[in-house]
Design brief:
The chain is about 45% helix and about 10% strand. It is an alpha/beta fold. Helix 8 (about 170-185) crosses helix 9 (about 190-195), helix 14 runs antiparallel to helix 26 (about 535-550) and helix 19 crosses helix 23 (about 465-475). It starts with 12 loop residues before the first strand and ends in an 11-residue tail after the last strand.
Amino acid sequence: MPAIEKPKHKVKIYSILGTAGAGKTTALIDLLNYLIQNTDRNKLRWLQESYQSLKQALKSELKYAEVWSENFSHIDITNVAFSSFSNTAIKEIAERSSLSIKGKSGELTRYWRTTTGLFEVLLYEYDLITREQMQKIGKIELYRKIWAKRNGLQYIINEVNTGFSRGRGNEIINEYSYLIHYYYGKNKTLEDIIDMHSNKKLIIDYIVFKKKHKFLDWEDIVMMAYENKCYLAMNDDIELFILDEAQDTSNLEYKTLLPILSNTQADLLIAGDDAQLIYSFKGADYKLFNYLINKSKEKHGIILNLTYTHRFGKNIGALAQAIMDDMLFVEHRKILTSDSKKDNVLYIMDFNKVIDFLKREDVRRQKVFILTRTNMVADKILEILKQGGIIVYNNEEEKRRMMTKEYEVYLCLKKWMAGELNDIDKESLKWLIWKYKKDITALEKLLVKKQLNELFEQQMLTREGLVRLLKWMEKNINPDKLDLNLIKHFIKSDESVKNIYNNIYVGTIHSVKGAEADIVILINTISASTARKIKDWEAEKRVLFVAVTRAKKLLIITHINKEYNTKNRRAVTWMDVHKYLNLK
């Protein structure tokens, strides 16, 4: 690979800090709208085709126009690359600014992706990886599951990574990933990292398995990009790289990204919140992020420091402030809230009272997060709620059922008509009947109107979903064979529609990063074995901060220590929240 001929560029670092709910994402969209308005109209062909959306971006009233003009007046939208923690997050922000993220070869938007995704594209553009290897990366979870099964280990595909896993295979891979992202490039080679791993034999077997099946994982991509960082560069037109949620970028990703920006002649805008750095177990380092913030202050200052939150009021704000004030390596600042915004913080010892609270009609009309530190506790919460008459469909298995492809649904319905449904099919069908009942007119084509109204009156059906299901039924099933009694039978089962709480999400704190809910119920319970594994309690403060700042109106802190205890498992309290606020 030939060396870059152009002189190295000293990367300028700009920074935007935004506390939870203070509008950091809105500010980034404001910046993108500014850059669109700063762009020659002839260059805007790669924006999405919707003229109305583009018109809105061009006429959008800018909140921080003076800030952008002072720092980025020479840049237009075609000179920008953008990265965040997920491609979904990037796409959502882009679409709110009229941008279409296609990522095709030759398009500037191919650099709008996660940092590891960016490295993958650059390695491909420099012929360091093949298209076949890129395609195999998309199947990495399946390959890992096969490897784990070969070694008698459980591997849970697409499990939300919290630093603690339900699968032994996940634990081994996660430790390997952390060691790579934190230590590789710090005078540590791959051989050193293998020696540092707690299960050297299995990680060697995993590396051999990868070579045998000729596939790369994301750790390989980042290491390859790091080894070739002196040569890799984005398109010459790129002048600004925006890194959203920058606090969760790993040591190795930064050590790779900065030289690439230097080769590209581009500057870096980091946007994030050092108090919300919750991926230290993946190599993110609050000391490094704090250093970068201070580095940006030397020349440009923090160009935006958003401290006024629109999300919650003074009670949740006081708790969040107390947690932040207890942190090390953080840009300490005052969280400002509105006195008119009503919120509350409660501590409830008895989880049965929480279940009764969730059943209230006024609560069922509000969005609720029930948050846990680990996936294991989340599983237990779903079980306890089910025993209490509250059905929540939101784990990965249920999500996959909800997203069932048309062909699979068609087969399920065909089995139904033939009386060949197994238990899994029945559960899927119950879910589909509940989920897709929206187009009442279409349903009336299949069912007699009198029978339909009877079902509604008996509250066996709601007026919420059925659009896609109805279309499939109209296409593939003879309406004459549709047995209304079968629908009644399925909906009258134990998991009836009235017990399904669509307003509740149960999951880990890490799974709701960037989201918010009217009511947040924090389960302050972990297993004793998990507590023993926690080495960095400084990092746990940041996870707690993210949990409490998801709430808009009400934060309830509770625990299930008694319910979680078994003969082989002891539950303990996760964090001492009382030291941050006197709760009643």
